[in-house]
Amino acid sequence: MNDDRASRRISLSELQEANLASISAIVSEIDGLLGDQLAESDEVTHTLRALVHYLSGRSQAVSMLVSWGYVWDAEIILRSFYETTAKIVYICLSDVSKRKALATEFWLDFEAIHARKTARIAEFPEKLFKKTDSASSAVFSALRDPKFFNPDDKRSKSERKAIEQRWSFSEIIESLSKLPDGEYALGDIKVLLHMYGMASHLIHADKTAMDLMTDRALRGPAERLILEASHAGRVLSDQTSLWFFCADAIRRHLGKQFQNPKGLWLSFDKVQDLGRPLSQMFSESQREFYERLGHLPPSDSCQDGTP
To answer: Confidence class of residue 38 from pLDDT cuts 50, 70 and 90?
Structure first.
């Protein structure tokens, strides 16, 4: 495919507009669900509000980065988006009897564990700044002050590790994948581990991250254009899907219904419909490569012309 043909077929503006409209509709539904709980001060509702607020900020960053063409950077922020989504869904879909305890653990037990770690590593910059900057030294000294941040956590190392492990992304996904079959079975949720893992490579700047950069740079202009559009489309699609996942989990947690389910689904489906051709275009451009690897049958063996 030459560059002109690819350019004419690829446009992200409509997808971006649909993405923002869908997110706006989803957030409105979440506000309606949690807004009904304004009089409530229970730990679970407070935790969900805080996580949704955090998710919203990361969502704006992802949208902005994609609009400016910084899709790799959007992917990095999206990893935090995945983490936040997992925590929201984990709390909402855990057994009702465990949700309050999970919220308490999130705020209190984690705080003690983090305070212990913070106090330990703050010692080094405190010593350094004592020589040059007393104001900065005071900041790190305060982080080690047991009057404000109690580092004396009585839990054993194995107990602390178990709490941190329980709240890790991979462990949350594992727990959600084991929910009983029924209306909200999530046996396929482990598919999220792949994109989360790829974003982790980008954050850690490891060999896989370097390989991704090299692969992108070595693509021909037309192929790279398709790949970049497909990448951006997938990030936006993930963003909308994760927002919807959170909204539906919160709805189920509260035992309520969406205010405008039809409008919500229409806006969500529009994002998926607009993003799908970008993915298909890239898949078509890679068919010959995967046929040579033996992971796709030859094109002439497909009766209907589709993969």
So the answer is: low
Contact yes or no for 52/246 (Cβ under 8 A):
yes
Number of H helices, E strands in the chain: 13, 0
Q: How high is the mean pLDDT of the chain?
A: 87
Evaluate whether residue 297 is within a structural domain.
no
Distances from the Cα of 136 to the Cα of 140, 239, 252, angstroms: 7, 38, 47
Q: Range of 49's domain?
A: 3-96+183-288
- DSSP per-residue codes, 110-149: HHHHHHHHHHHHHHHHHHHHHTT-HHHHHHHHHHT-TTTS
The pLDDT tens digits of the residues spanning 232-290 come to 999 999 999 999 999 999 999 999 999 999 999 999 999 999 999 998 888 888 888 78
Tally of residues, the chain: 307
Residue 155 burial (CB < 10 Å; 0-12/13-18/19+)? middle
Contact 3, 225 (CB under 8 A): yes
Domain count, the chain: 1
